[in-house]
Amino acid sequence: MESEATELFKSKFALKNIPKRVFIFPITALILVILLPLFTHLNQSSSKFLFTTTVVETTSCNLFSGKWVPYQKQPYYNESCPFITEKQNCLLHGRPDTDFLKWRWKPNDCELPMFDAIQFFKLVKGKSMAFVGDSIGRNQMESLLCLLNSVAHPEDITTKYVSNIEDLTYFKWWFYADYNFTITMLWSPFLVKSSKSYIYNSSFYQPENLYLDEPDTAWTSRIENFDYVIFSGGQWFFRPFIFYENGSVVGCQKCNNSIELNFYGYKKAYQTALKTMTNLKRFKGLAFLVTHSPNHFENGAWNEGGGCNRTQPFIKDQEWEVHPYGLEILHQIQFEEFSIAKKVAGENGLRLGLIDITDAMLMRPDGHPNKYGHALEKNVSLINDCVHWCMPGPVDTINEIFLYLMRMV
Ligand SMILES: *[C@@H]1O[C@H](CO)[C@@H](O)[C@H](O)[C@H]1NC(C)=O
Ligand SMILES: *[C@@H]1O[C@H](CO)[C@@H](O)[C@H](O)[C@H]1NC(C)=O
Ligand SMILES: *[C@@H]1O[C@H](CO)[C@@H](O)[C@H](O)[C@H]1NC(C)=O
Ligand SMILES: *[C@@H]1O[C@H](CO)[C@@H](O)[C@H](O)[C@H]1NC(C)=O
Ligand SMILES: *[C@@H]1O[C@H](CO)[C@@H](O)[C@H](O)[C@H]1NC(C)=O
Ligand SMILES: *[C@@H]1O[C@H](CO)[C@@H](O)[C@H](O)[C@H]1NC(C)=O
Ligand SMILES: *[C@@H]1O[C@H](CO)[C@@H](O)[C@H](O)[C@H]1NC(C)=O
């Protein structure tokens, strides 16, 4: 069981020039994905619950409330894009249906423009961008690299910045010489300091110490030099935790025979991260928070043979058929902490935006690798990946929204 989970969720960077350095995916994220077919908000439209706001003031349209509409043109790129992590390359692994590529996100009150790589480079020329978070953030970053691949190719300069095996495994620096533009993955799955027991023991059940009032230096020590910083994270908050504040145990999750989630840890981690970011002295960049990316296990949890074999997006009310446990609460916490941080950011002359993708991605049970996230010729019993997103796929929409918002501010 453990080794199977490890097998599925390990992954390497797509390019071969950093050999044999393995990503450990958030296997712990998947524990206890309980399916609640009829969630408490059944009678409300989900949009009503999730999206009561527009986010960056300069945006006149709420990009995050809308639906997926049919779109017949080819996706931006195909399975030959060299930046796709192998386990998200669904086409390469023989996913038979391609209808999941034939949808575009349509906000209710406006059009979301296509991603324009030339326009993107105009904005970022001479600048730098950091993704702070977990493998879902990395999924978004790699989508961005593929969206840019028709215009320019980056050089891997990771070894200029980090040298130990752990950092080389988890971090990444790409440099676009033509545009003097750097794009970076700063690995920080909890955003705050942790005991990193996941590095030494990939068991799903190994508890992690989380220091809720101490931001993770993986990003605090680095982001002040970046022009754009994109925070995300959430999937790793489902594992067993012991929470610390001010050096003392203040609580735990999935401990003492309890299987409950303790959302206190999630809230506090976001509070600490956003507070730290808005108060960094030298950071003058543009920051975004990407909201929780939902998973879509059906007919069982990740470790019970659950999967996600749908081939169509949900239409509005169908969303509630597949609904990850705790999603509303996670989203609400992010939203509240974002709103608080945004005020402080304003006072400190910082710009902070929300990329509120939860609702749009909730409608895409068809966008995950499922069993096409790993080599089928390997004789391993399958654990389906209903967490990450196929590339190409709906994850590219997150970057369409991202570029739109970058232009707005
Ligand atoms: C994939 O895209 C590349 C680059 O655009 C192109 O050269 C190649 O023919 C495409 N492959 C397939 C299978 O469509
Ligand atoms: C490249 O961009 C960096 C900032 O990201 C700047 O310090 C540097 O001077 C630029 N180099 C050139 C050659 O424009
Ligand atoms: C990893 O953690 C699990 C769960 O706590 C434990 O049962 C196992 O013995 C640990 N393995 C190693 C190698 O420490
Ligand atoms: C942290 O602990 C120290 C020593 O126990 C105490 O003096 C201090 O007030 C505590 N700080 C907070 C913020 O609780
Ligand atoms: C587990 O329960 C015991 C007894 O109630 C308590 O003392 C301990 O602090 C709990 N563990 C954690 C990590 O909260
Ligand atoms: C999807 O999975 C369900 C449950 O395992 C199964 O009943 C159904 O036949 C599958 N559909 C397809 C198209 O494979
Ligand atoms: C794969 O594993 C199954 C069960 O362990 C075994 O019966 C089968 O022969 C194996 N197939 C290959 C191609 O190794």
Automatic annotation (TrEMBL):
Work out whether the entry's keyword set contains Transmembrane: yes
Q: Kindly give the InterPro entries that the UniProt entry links to this protein.
A: TBL (IPR029962), TBL_C (IPR026057), TBL_N (IPR025846)
Q: Which UniProt keywords apply?
A: Membrane, Signal-anchor, Transmembrane, Transmembrane helix
User: What would be one Pfam family of this protein?
Assistant: PC-Esterase
One GO CC annotation: Golgi apparatus
| Domain of life the protein comes from | Eukaryota
- Membrane-crossing residue ranges in chain numbering: 21-39
Q: Where in the cell is it found?
A: Membrane
Any idea where the Trichome birefringence-like N-terminal domain is? Answer: 60-111
Q: Which sequence ranges form a coiled-coil region, renumbered to this chain?
A: none
What does the record say about its membrane topology? Single-pass membrane protein
Transmembrane helix as a keyword of this entry, yes or no, is yes
- GO: which molecular function terms? O-acetyltransferase activity
Residues forming the Trichome birefringence-like C-terminal domain are 112-403
Q: Which family does it belong to?
A: Belongs to the PC-esterase family. TBL subfamily.
Protein known as: Protein trichome birefringence-like 21
Recorded source organism is Cicer arietinum (Chickpea)
